[in-house]
Amino acid sequence: MIDLVLGGKSNALSITRALGADNITSYLVDNHIQPIAANSKYVNNAFYCDNNINTFLKIMRDYFGDTLKVLYPTSDYWLEFITNNKDALKSNSFLFFDNSTELINTFTNKLFFYQNLSQQFPIPETIDFNGTINGDYIVKPKKSFQQNLCIDKGFTQHEKGDIPGDYLIKQAFIDVQLDQHYSVSGIADRGCVKAAIITRKQLEYPSPGGTATMVVSVKDKYVRKQLISLAEKVLIVTGYSGAFEVEILKENDRFWLLEVNARFWLQHIMPLSEGINFAIIYRKLLLGQAIKANVPRYYNESKILLWLHEGSPISFFKASFAKKLDIMNVLFFQRSVISFGYFFKGDINPLIEFIKCCLSKK
User: Fold this and answer.
1) Packing angle between helix 53-64 and helix 76-84, nearest 10 degrees?
2) Backbone angles phi, psi at 275, to 5 degrees
3) For the segment 64-104, what is each residue's pLDDT rounded down to a tens digit?
4) CB under 8 Å, gap of 24 or more: what pairs does 115-123 form?
5) Is the Cα torsion angle 53, 56, 58, 60 positive or negative in sign?
6) What Cα–Cα distance (Å) separates residue 17 from each residue in 13, 267, 309, 325?
7) Helices in 175-277 by DSSP H: which ranges?
8) How far, in Å, CA of 96 to CA of 89, rounded?
9) Per-residue pLDDT tens digits for 217-235
10) Are 343 and 307 in contact (CB under 8 A)?
11) Phi, psi (5° rounding) for residue 307?
């Protein structure tokens, strides 16, 4: 059997390493030549391919023949590729969770997400962008990519006028601190959570609206209970199967459903050191194999799990003094287990390539 990780950035890297922890070497497919994740020792080979299904099938057939192949999507680009080509993929021995096209379109499009789910869940009002911002709204990309164009986090492309208005939405602004931005991330099967971790953002870059650069697990019992309740309702109502991240904002005592990422995300590597391997759980469910009986549905041990992106020092420098104190407390005075975006003991080459890429942009 072949394990194919779709994508080449830090999300993909975390899944190749998670598979490697179970002595499984994987293959990468990405629409970028020489992606950083391809430098991992846990990757056998990397293939360059866009979302043309015929090209994709030819490359895979030439290399793997009719061998069964498990797909691990790590971006919306590859998630939609699977969704749009599911019949062709099934008939060519690819294995993946078969969610409806309507559901995946709902999850990947913020406007559809609001239109289809706001009657059942508390979602910030979301409307088409008409070129003006009136009232307490923020501008966001409708999707994370449009016609192969990846939309930058932090919406700088909109500010430069690089994104057409019909690619954007306006969303009601929920005025909360960054550490009130939570995620429930894990693996679900037909709406049932099989394993998950609850986290919150500590740092992001750029801010607001950027990529998380520091994420920490959540211990507060009341908050955990509310987050689990909302996330499970969403998954049960939609009947979703696969890797997920449910993003939730806490405004005082109100919990807002922000979005659902129906793919692997950075949080999926965090509990690996504690024996919870989301990539393997995903794989076993697809193959109809039993999950270890001692795997908890929700990580809730005494250790604080912490994820750091190598760009976090920039975010830390820009943070407020109070935020700096909070972060230093988590880093140095609590029982924390730290994982990184690119650094991984015994697998240093992706970090070296990441540094080279950063220096080349200077």
Assistant:
1) 90
2) 85, 10
3) 999 999 999 999 999 999 999 999 999 999 999 999 999 99
4) 117/234, 117/237, 117/257, 120/237, 121/230, 121/233, 121/234, 121/257, 122/254, 122/255, 122/256, 122/257, 123/256, 123/257, 123/258
5) negative
6) 6, 13, 16, 32
7) 221-238
8) 9
9) 999 999 999 999 999 999 9
10) no
11) -120, 130
User: Would you place residue 148 in the very low, low, confident or very high pLDDT band (cuts 50, 70, 90)?
Assistant: low
Count of Cβ atoms closer than 10 Å to residue 9 Cβ: 19
User: CA-CA distance, 264 to 10, in Å (whole number)?
Assistant: 10
Residue pointed to by tokens 């988590």:
330
Distance, C-alpha 311 to centroid of its chain: 17
Model confidence, pTM:
0.94
Dihedral (CA of 88, 91, 94, 98) sign: positive
Burial of 3 (0-12, 13-18, 19+ CB in 10 A): buried
Residues near 36 by beta carbon (within 8 Å), at least 6 away in sequence: 8, 9, 10, 13, 342, 350, 353, 354, 357
Task: Compute the 3-state secondary structure of the chain and give helix, strand, coil in percent, each to the nearest 5.
Answer: 40, 25, 35
Q: Tokens standing for 257? A: 């459903």
**Alpha-carbon gap, residue 6 to 73, rounded angstroms:** 5
Question: Taking the CA atoms of the chain, what radius of gyration do you get in angstroms?
Answer: 20
